[in-house]
Each structure stands twice: as structure tokens, then as C-alpha cells.
Design brief:
Blueprint: E1 7-11, H1 24-36, E2 41-44, H2 56-70, E3 76-79, H3 85-97, E4 102-105, H4 115-125, E5 133-137, H5 139-142, H6 148-157, E6 161-166, H7 171-181, E7 187-190, H8 197-203, E8 207-210, H9 215-226, H10 230-247, H11 253-263, H12 281-292
Parallel strand pairs: 1-2, 1-8, 2-3, 3-4, 4-5, 5-6, 6-7, 7-8
Helix pairs in contact: 1-2, 3-4, 6-7, 7-8, 9-10
Length: 298
């Protein structure tokens, strides 16, 4: 298949003021960070965007603001995940109204995977929707196990699903399994902080959707890889892997990411919105020590 999007798509965190309001000034700088450093797209309202901590009015205000700031310079993918057909359908409609180009949607949470219900869910939310959908495979959040066979089935029966954001480790192995099962190759993006970007690209991924606080490094890695400069791609990526790994700590990865972006002068505060956890003082000190290793590079 011909994929309309590929490459590095920056998963934008939602910046907050000290009063826990949306910080639109910082959003503007995050957008410019993405565009100026060559990102191939921007993703908003994802898990790392604290979408589940925002009101519907706040969601729409951010989507509208980002769309106007981007001004058609790069594609915008908007997360619309929710726990019912009614909620997701409403979010799809609003996202289209405010300028989304693509939609990111995970399955609703389930105690036990029910493929019949999932198929009905995605068919219903796709009615009257002509925007391509990125299906987010994130079992640690949803409890849903998407097998390669079911992914093939759902992409055939719900043609709006054009891409997978694969976050079911081990991701390299599952990429190979999905591509071997899908009758019409689906575009697979990696995620999970970008830790396995090289391996995912080697297995056939078309890029990654992640929010590493130095997106320019992932862009350069991807470009070297696509230009068949594999040695250069690996050298650059592995040089930055200690920071990528440190940022990707489960539970506090968003707070670490925001602290790096704050230190870079991109966002005004590193604050998350409670109850999203923040890092402790010792972690801040460890991060500061690690960042000093990269000072000459930024």
C-alpha cells in the first residue's frame, strides 16, 4: 500500500501553567520544535498528552489552537480514544471540525479481549468518517490483546484503519508477524519512547510516533536509515540511547520528558496535571547529570 504518512511524528505533551491551566504559549513552541526539526507529523491528545486529564472543552481548544499554529505545514494526528462509541464518535466529529488530518484510536478498555465487540466498535465509530485511522495497540493501558490475525481482519473490514501504532512488546517481532499476516500491507509505526526505533525500522516499520524530548535526533536517525546509511543511523541512535532509555521509565516518563523540554526552554513549566506523577528530587538530579553528557550536542 502507499502510505500518506511515515517518518517521525512528535507526540506532543500538553503543557500546563503553575495553576494547571493549558499553556498555549508553550504549545506554540512545541509545534515549532516539531516543524523546525523536520518531524513528519505531530500527534496530540495521546496518553502522553494527558488527554484523559482534559475536559472536552480543553481538548477542542488545544486541537483548534494546534491546527491554526501548524497551518497545514505538517500532518496532525488527533487522539480520539474513549470508552464508548458515542464518546469516540463525538470526538472524531469535533477533531475533523478543528483540523485533524488523521485519527489515533485505541480499543476501549476490556477485562477480556472480545474481538466481535471490538470489530463492531470500530465499524460504528468509522461510519461517516473519511479520515484515516491509526489503530493504537497498547495492551498495558487497554487490557486488549490485538493478534496479527485480528489486525488483518479489522483492516479489511474497517478500511479507514490504515496504520497501527504498535506498543505491544516485543515490537520488532510483532511487526514481522503483522506484516506476514496482512493481505495489504498496513503502515506500522513504533512508539514506547522510541527505544527500539532501529530494530522496528529494520523489521519494516514506516516510522515512530513518540515524544522523545529531542525529536531532531529521531528525525536524523530515520533519515540516515532511509538513505541506507545504516551505520550512521545506528551510531547516532546508540549515542543518545542512554537518555532515551532514562526518559522511558514507566510511570514517570512524561514528567521526565517535560523536565527536559523545560530545561530546553520549550515549555514554561514541567508540571503534569494531578494525579499524573511528577519525578522526585533524586530523579531530577540524575536527569541533570545525564543531560550534562549531551550539552555539547544541543
Amino acid at each position: 500500500m502507499t502510505n500518506a504518512i511515515q517518518g517521525i511524528h512528535f507526540m506532543m505533551p500538553t503543557p500546563f501553567t503553575k495553576e494547571s491551566n493549558i499553556d498555549f504559549e508553550s504549545i506554540d513552541r512545541l509545534v515549532e520544535l516539531s516543524i523546525e526539526n523536520g518531524c513528519h507529523g505531530i500527534v496530540i491528545m495521546g496518553v502522553m498528552g494527558e488527554a484523559h486529564r482534559l475536559t472536552e472543552d480543553e481538548r477542542n481548544a488545544v486541537i483548534n489552537h494546534v491546527s491554526k499554529k501548524v497551518n497545514n505545514r505538517i500532518p496532525i494526528t488527533v487522539g480520539v480514544s474513549g470508552e464508548s462509541i458515542k464518546i469516540v464518535s463525538k470526538r472524531i466529529k469535533e477533531s475533523k471540525t478543528f483540523g485533524a488530518n488523521y485519527l489515533l484510536c485505541s480499543p476501549p478498555k476490556m477485562l477480556k479481549t472480545n474481538e466481535k465487540v471490538l470489530l463492531k466498535f470500530f465499524k460504528e465509530i468509522s461510519k461517516d468518517n473519511n479520515l484515516p485511522i491509526v489503530l493504537q495497540d497498547l495492551p498495558q493501558e487497554t487490557g486488549v490483546n490485538l493478534t496479527p490475525e485480528f489486525i488483518n481482519k479489522i483492516t479489511i473490514e474497517v478500511p479507514q484503519i490504515k496504520f497501527i501504532k504498535l506498543e505491544d512488546p516485543p515490537t520488532p517481532k510483532k511487526i514481522s508477524e503483522i506484516l506476514s499476516k496482512t493481505s495489504d500491507q498496513i503502515g506500522i509505526f513504533g512508539g514506547l519512547g522510541g527505544v527500539f526505533l532501529i530494530e522496528e525500522l529494520t523489521r519494516g516499520a514506516i516510522g515512530t510516533m513518540t515524544g522523545f524530548a529531542f525529536p531532531e535526533i529521531l528525525v536524523k536517525t530515520y533519515e540516515e536509515f532511509k538513505n541506507n546509511n545504516i551505520k550512521n543511523a545506528k551510531s547516532l541512535f546508540f549515542e543518545w540511547l542512554p537518555l532515551i532509555r532514562y526518559e522511558n521509565q514507566q510511570g514517570i516518563s512524561l514528567s521526565i520528558r517535560k523536565h527536559i523540554l523545560f530545561r530546553r526552554g520549550i515549555i514554561n513549566t514541567p508540571d503534569t496535571r494531578l494525579p499524573t506523577p511528577s519525578i522526585d528530587k533524586k530523579t531530577e538530579e540524575e536527569l541533570e547529570s545525564l543531560l550534562k553528557e549531551y550539552q555539547f550536542k544541543n
